Amino acid sequence: MTEPAPNRKHLILDAACRAIARTGAAAVRVSDVAREAGVSTALVHYYFPSRADVIVQAFSHADDLADAVAEEHLADLASGRERVERLILTWAGDDPAIRTNWAVWNEMWQYAAHNEAARAMVADSHQRWLDQVTQLIGEGREDGSIPAEVDVDGAARRLAAVLQEERVDVLTVYDAAGGYGHPDHVQVHRVGVRAAELAGTPVVLEATVPRRGLLRLLRLLHAVRLSPPDWSPERYAHAYTDAADITHRIDVRQHIGAKRAAMAAHVSQATADAGDRSLAIFLRLPAWLFRLAFGREWFVERGRPRGARPGDVFATLRGGQRDRSG
What is the pTM of this model? Predict the structure, then answer.
């Protein structure tokens, strides 16, 4: 049998990317890809034994094309700052390969929740992106083009300009502990709070969890061996927020399926080099326990008195308690 020309495979993958972006990964069929490519379904199956193979390899193909565009844009830049800025601008730009990649990415995040091969590929792709950004920032710090410390006030002024331009009424940030204490989350809190002050944003909500309740749940999971033996719940002893300081408790149980699917799709946060991360442990919970643990969301509204916990994050705005002039 004569083997088809090698460029036919790339033609089919290009077509698969377009079909996935238009139809969606969950709905696209091999016949859709064949029609888009102008070839027979038999030729598609010559390269890709199953529909799942087409979808997963199309994602990898879109990633490779977009990475090549980004690398070309970075090639002649001298400093780490220039490269990281150009990388972000390139991924936010209008190059056809980049736009196709975004469209396929959006589909793959959802598809990955139900396909192990796709989940691994999405996690790897996302990690490579994070590694590239980390490397470029490191290069910028070495060459002096990126300061070693975050300029909170400078970042806050830039964010405040956006808040004012968009006339934002509510801004959400991490709590003062940075949730579980990640340094980036702490900086998001500091920058967001300062930006809201500068912009006069009426309501700032700190997304959080009641610390004591979380610790009880984590200790239970550890006791019944649903967490790795070397994983300690006590790492959360100073995380998140004391329950008495929480101002809003929102019932989201009617959306619990979508919430669990979103957490499952966040594959890069489910594993780490040393093993499972907290998200993977939570996803192993039985449905009833997951609903109990994640059926509510909590916030601290800055400036709101402690006490009653309205189930409406817009209660302050609806009550007219604050306006932009205040």
Answer: 0.65
